[in-house]
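Students often ask why inverse folding is considered easier than folding. One informal answer: many sequences map to the same fold, so there is more than one right answer. In these notes we will look at a single instance of the problem. The structure comes first.
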């Protein structure tokens, strides 16, 4: 997942202030953020995750990492449709899901705006964790793991970590928002 600051993985979102970028999935051409929106959606057609859920997850990840905050505007439906070549109802479904969760609200004639945030780590700690994770990823790559191998190893370790903690702090509602359901454990880590 690409979430601002150049965080990479599968099917993500990029913050407008991002100096870096990249990542897996289908990458739309640059400069396609909706007017006034600090994010750009990306899709991973091979993930098995429904398109609307990919959009919801990307907003949630951006909120957790502090790249979106209350008052920020999400890309306009027409911009997402033209950028990703998807049905407008898919974008509307994602935005309705965000509204149901209390994270966003539509304003007639203006667009959809972030209304709430999710828990997040302070930015200095996030930067330190990110550097550490990038070091780990480099080691995994040097050991010969490709992207799928890295995702599989990380997902397995993540599952084991939360299993040892008794499920505390893991997925909401006892399920994984990922392809393959609870056993797949792939969530596009940022």
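Output (designed amino acids):
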């Amino acid at each position: 997942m690409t979430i601002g600051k150049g965080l990479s993985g599968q099917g993500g979102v990029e913050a407008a202030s991002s100096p870096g970028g990249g990542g897996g999935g289908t990458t739309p051409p640059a400069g396609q953020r909706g007017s006034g929106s600090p994010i750009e959606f990306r899709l991973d057609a091979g993930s098995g995750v429904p398109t609307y859920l990919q959009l919801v997850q990307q907003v949630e990840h951006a909120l957790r990492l502090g790249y979106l905050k209350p008052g920020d505007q999400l890309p306009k439906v027409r911009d997402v449709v033209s950028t990703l070549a998807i049905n407008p109802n898919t974008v509307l479904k994602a935005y309705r899901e965000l509204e149901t969760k209390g994270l966003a609200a539509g304003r007639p004639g203006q667009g959809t705006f972030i209304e709430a945030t999710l828990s997040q780590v302070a930015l200095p700690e996030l930067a330190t964790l990110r550097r550490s994770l990038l070091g780990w990823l480099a080691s995994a790559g040097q050991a010969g793991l490709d992207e799928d191998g890295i995702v599989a190893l990380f997902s397995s370790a993540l599952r084991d970590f939360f299993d040892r903690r008794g499920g505390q702090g893991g997925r909401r509602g006892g399920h994984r928002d990922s392809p393959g359901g609870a056993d797949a454990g792939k969530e596009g880590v940022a």
